[in-house]
Amino acid sequence: MCGIVGLLVKKREQRASLGQLAQPMFTCMGERGPDSGGLAVFGPPVAPPLRRFNLFIPDRRFDWQALFMSFRRAFTDRAADTRITPLENHAILLSAVDPAEVKAWLTECDPSPKLLSVGRFIDVYKDVGRPGEIARRYHFGELSGSHCVGHTRMATESDVTPAHAHPYTAGEDFCLVHNGSLSNHHRLRRTLERRGVRFETDNDTEAACRFLEWRLTQGDTLEQALEQGFRVLDGFYTLLMATPDRLTLVRDAFACKPAVVAETDSYVAVSSEFRSLAHLPGVADANMFEPKPEEIYSWKV
Questions:
Q1: For 100-154, what is each residue's pLDDT tens digit?
Q2: Do 297 and 250 meet the contact criterion of CB atoms below 8 Å apart?
Q3: Reduced to 3 DSSP states, what percent helix, strand and coil does the chain have, rounded to the nearest 5?
Q4: 3-class DSSP state for residue 244?
Q5: By three-state DSSP, how is residue 111 classified?
Q6: Considering only Cβ atoms within 10 Å of each terminal Cβ, which end of the chain, N or C, has fewer?
Q7: Domain count, the chain
Q8: Do 60 and 88 contact (CB within 8 A), yes or no?
Q9: Is 2 tagged catalytic?
Q10: pLDDT, average across residues 168-177
Q11: Across-strand partners of 168?
Q12: Are residues 115 and 216 in the same domain?
């Protein structure tokens, strides 16, 4: 049993309050997922060729400034606009260096920070522990942006580590959270690995995330990738995904994993349970519904 939440703020003038509205949703779902949790936030893009590299390391006393100076020495010719914003054991590295080069450089570091996400829009925060503590540690209530997705995890099929926590990311500016379990993720993993897709964990959710992102690289739209997912993914799932311009929700053919949607003129909110939406302004008058099985729900920013 896990908890998923998502919030898309429709009006630009209200996006500064995204975190203030989303944090109670996230912490409320802590009872469904007490092991670990995370939140992905989409905000204004950085100018190309810059990208945002979200990094994590277990040691909260880690010297991020030393890592930053080492990075600048390694990429002297492209370090002019590079900067780092640390927050405890999380940091956002802003750089124009190609992601493949950044990933290769990180593997040479000792200790080596984990790369949580890459993109021009996305920031990802995730860790082990109670969701309420995670939200306080990373100041979720102060975050701003157009939309976010979050997850609270109760581990059932793989380890409890920050790497196994959701949201999962693949490629750039794409993330996914999942409530449920897949029965064919090992076979799906082997199929993707033969096509050159690399995995970082043994978690079933990563297989779904990388499958969908792989379909996107093959030219599918997200809707087309999800139609393929309905045919390929075997198991029970509610999947909530985010890209820079939309929030997307699907459930499997049996729809046994709970989900509820509340939509007003100001926002679209998604959760595993209504109680995490009860604090939202105007929710009593919202268009409230339970998503249907194998139907794609997508809301544009």
A1: 999 999 999 999 999 999 999 999 999 999 999 999 999 999 999 999 999 999 8
A2: yes
A3: 30, 30, 40
A4: coil
A5: coil
A6: N
A7: 2
A8: yes
A9: yes
A10: 98
A11: 176
A12: no
